[in-house]
Design brief:
Distance between the termini: 48 Å
Largest sheet: 9 strands, mixed
Structural class: alpha/beta
CATH topology of the largest domain: Dihydrodipicolinate Reductase, domain 2
Number of helices: 15
CATH architecture of the largest domain: 2-Layer Sandwich
């Protein structure tokens, strides 16, 4: 007899909630079924409820309203906005739910530690949305490193290429453009990358330095005759690479266009551009996150790492180079290429990791698979991207931002002790 699907509730029916977790459930009805949703936007809430056959009385305007009811399922998917992660997840764990939480854990280091502790104390699964750990590309890279393909690791160069249009959409006009609303760029965008580095290097970090700034997307890059919106008769709009008209009012209705309005008809998109945040001039927004940053990390055993975040690139991908005593691995995620060069033989081997399909290089569906099976087994140890495993990458993000903003080198042992002590007192 086939097993019943794992039942779950959802916090946040936006892009990740509806299009990633929701679509996974619809495609895998034998594995996962949503029985309730909490979403403040009425149109999104009603759409998700309709798609999943959720009764009106189980479609709530807030996560607090949902948690006011007795526990409705064993699992909870949390796709709320970043600043809401800590409070909503803490309450969900207290209510008895196993939780898959979109990254990051929280927007401050103390809350991250407290969430990890709460999951451990309550013996609940707290899986992070570190979908790249489940992507075949990074799974293959990790296997190469752990099996010693390049000997002892010496140095890593890792680059997060945030394409110019992605930077403008998400980190200038969008939800993650302002530190007060979403945390620093190194956390909001690069906590994936910090987690990958901590996982691949597999040693404790010793010290961190960082440099970066918001250089381009500022008011002083636009003349006084540039209006607040692309639709307000902007004289440079036809030639501007960041034109909202070009970006959102063309034939494409997939992401990122789908993010500006639940209704992707031309009329709805035009209204969103004319009245919503995504139609603003990129030089007239309230953004303050950096648009380029570099982080230098020293790990134990003298392993050195450089992480670069670039917001002005053509490619929207990640590239990396791992050098060791016996060889070198160069990777390009978008091309699905891992090239291993052996020093002794001089030979190069090209690997193209298998494709699983789905977002984030196949990581999204595999991450959901892992969470569903862990919930079914009631086994907190069964997930690769647990909050406990992902905590180090978060702490590296916060240390990097402290190093950048305070113009100093952060010693990680002292930083960890400081955060743990603050969590004890919280």
């Amino acid at each position: 007899m086939a097993s019943k699907p794992v039942e779950a509730v959802l916090f946040g029916a936006g892009g990740r909630g509806r299009h990633t977790f929701g679509q996974y459930a619809l495609r895998n009805a034998d594995r996962l079924k949503f029985v309730a949703v909490a979403e403040p936007d009425a149109q999104r809430r009603e759409t998700f409820a309709r798609e999943h056959g959720i009764a009106t009385e189980h479609a709530y305007p807030s996560w607090e309203d949902l948690l006011a009811r007795p526990q409705m399922a064993p699992a909870l998917f949390n796709a709320t906005m970043d600043p809401m992660h800590a409070d909503s997840t803490m309450a969900a764990l207290e209510a008895g739910y196993h939780v898959l939480l979109e990254k990051p854990l929280a927007v401050d280091a103390v809350s991250c530690v407290r969430l990890v502790r709460k999951a451990q104390q309550n013996k609940r699964i707290l899986q992070l949305g570190y979908t790249l750990r489940y992507a075949p590309f990074f799974e293959a890279l990790n296997q190469m490193l752990t099996t010693g393909r390049i000997g002892q690791m010496l140095h890593v160069d890792h680059t997060e290429k945030v394409a110019y249009w992605h930077m403008a959409h998400s980190f200038v006009r969008g939800n993650w453009g302002n530190v007060a609303r979403s945390g620093p760029m190194i956390l909001a965008k690069c906590c994936h990358d910090m987690d990958l580095l901590a996982w691949m290097v597999d040693r404790p970090a010793v010290r961190v330095a960082s440099f970066g700034a918001l250089t381009h997307f500022r008011a002083d890059w636009a003349n006084s005759d540039i209006p607040k919106r692309c639709t307000d008769g902007c004289p440079i709009e036809p030639d501007c690479p960041y034109s909202a008209i070009r970006m959102y009012l063309g034939e494409n209705t997939d992401w990122p266009v789908s993010a500006i309005s639940p209704d992707t008809s031309m009329a709805a998109r035009r209204e969103a551009v004319e009245t919503g945040p995504y139609g603003r001039c990129v030089y007239r927004c309230d953004n303050d996150v950096v648009d380029h940053q570099v982080v230098a990390i020293e790990f134990a055993d003298d392993v050195t790492v450089s992480l670069t975040m670039e917001g002005h690139t053509v490619e929207n991908t990640r590239t990396m180079r791992y050098s060791g005593t016996e060889g070198e691995i160069c990777g390009h995620m978008a091309k699905n290429e891992l090239r291993v060069h052996d020093f002794a033989s001089g030979q190069e081997c090209l690997t193209r990791p298998g494709s699983y399909g789905g977002g984030h290089g196949g990581g999204d569906p595999r991450m959901c698979d892992a969470f569903v099976e862990a919930v079914r087994a009631d086994d907190p140890s069964a997930v690769l991207a647990s909050a406990e495993a992902g905590l180090e990458g978060h702490l590296l993000c916060f240390a990097a931002e402290q190093a950048r903003s305070q113009h100093r080198v952060v010693e990680m042992d002292a930083f960890r002790r400081e955060i743990e002590s603050a969590a004890d007192k919280a």
